[in-house]
Hints:
Elements: H1 9-35, H2 73-109, H3 114-121, H4 129-137, E1 153-155, H5 157-160, E2 169-172, E3 175-178, H6 202-205, H7 222-237, E4 242-247, H8 260-278, H9 282-285, E5 290-294, E6 298-302, E7 317-321, E8 330-334, E9 344-345, E10 356-358
Parallel strand pairs: 1-4
Antiparallel strand pairs: 2-3, 3-4, 5-6, 6-10, 7-8, 7-9
Amino acid sequence: MARRGKKTAAQKRAEQATRRRRESLLNQAEKADDSGEEKAPPLRPVLLNGRKGPGQPRNVRKGRKGSISKTDPSWAWRTVFTWVVFASLGMWLYSLEMKDLHDTVISVADKLPLSVKNWLESFHAPAPKDQENQDESISIPHDWHLGPDLTKKLYSLDEIKYKQDGPLLLVLIGHVFDVTGADYYQPGSGYHAFIGQDASRSYVTGNFTAEGVTDDVEGLQATDYIGLESWLKFYLEHGSYKFVGYLDGKYFDSNGHETAAMKKFRSLLSWAKEEIEKEGDLLQLFPSCNVDWKAETGSTLWCSAKSGGVDRDWVGFPRKFFEKPDKSPRCACVHPNYLADPRVKEYLSCPSTSLSCKLLETDK
């Protein structure tokens, strides 16, 4: 056995063979330069005694595979993919947290008084004009049966009063509507008496005197309450009239919540519907008349194919209709087939075949 540190004969022979091969390749390269032939390929690094020779990659280690270099394209793609995964997970968790926060804010906001909500909304930037038009074109009429819309404005009595060059505001069962632009409600017209006050009772009685113009609707007949509901739906669903808020008064309090009077109206309306069903739907058989009132001429009654909120294929004649003997009559549009009904009486000032007439004091 050879002593440690000395080369064996086999190792010496291998080194000599390597040197001879290297010299042979160098000679071939010199000859190629002189003759113009293609050069021999460059020498590959050779491991001597298992050690790293010249040109050996630095990441090569004995018994270990090479690690991934940052210059490797796969390293960049793996980094990007990792960031995308973690970013998506973070956004998803954030959205869940924000949804819970949004629900909490909404629940707290619902309990705020209407005046506070209006004050907070005053800080919002107005929407672009085209966006406002788009919102109005797809707006859904408010269903008053669901209760008050607390996003609407709360008006005082002074705010709804008629003012020159101001909006025309009318009130029906505490609901405020802007009817600006409609000829029917201009000063001097028949319906101007409805502007600037809650004259709910006059909508079904046709009484526009100082005593008759009131927001008190108790003691009416069943069909009158149905008529009030029809008027309310008419304004809420009208394309030109705008439902703008509530009146702080008889039917809604200073926070925009329903009062006892509003709850009483709801109960009276439920009672009226039950009565109508019991009596064979009198409102369909004897729909209410249209009523117009002017200070100079008084009240005018007339019938049409849609009067009383009942869409039909006949018009009818204006008559006094006594639903009950102990109740005051109302004006009804009576079909020719029902003119002989004992509950129907003619107005003294109306020709029997006329579709409209002006009431005299003797008819009231």
